[in-house]
Amino acid sequence: MAGLSFDVLRTGKKYRLINFGETHEFIVENVLANGDFKVKDLLTLERYRLKELIHYGKGKDFMLEEIENS
Question: Which terminal Cβ of the chain has fewer Cβ within 10 Å, N or C?
Fold first, then answer.
């Protein structure tokens, strides 16, 4: 496991998550009380919960990083 912890995610910030060879870029829209986050995919504009991306665990390539605003 590398990169950021879920504890440091903030509303309005953009992040990239790599897990099991898949890359997801999203913006955090809301922090939920159960430790989950409502996010919006930056490519598809689909909304989902962050825990859906790690439902099957964390792979060897797991990395969470902040995307710089450009």
Answer: C
Please report, for the chain, the start and end positions of each structural domain, with discontinuous segments joined by +: 2-66
Q: pTM of the full predicted structure?
A: 0.89
Please name the CATH architecture into which domain 2-66 falls: Roll (2.30)
Question: What is the distance between the alpha carbons of residues 66 and 5, in angstroms, rounded to a whole number?
Answer: 11
Are 54 and 2 in contact by the 8 Å Cβ rule? The answer is no
**Residue position matching structure tokens 């099957």:** 56
Are 26 and 39 in contact, with CB atoms under 8 Å apart?
A: yes
CB-based burial label for 49 (10 Å; 0-12, 13-18, 19+): middle
Query: In this predicted structure, what is the pLDDT of residue 3?
Result: 82
Q: Please check the confidence at residue 46 and state whether its pLDDT lies above 60.
A: yes
Q: What is the mean pLDDT of residues 9-22?
A: 95
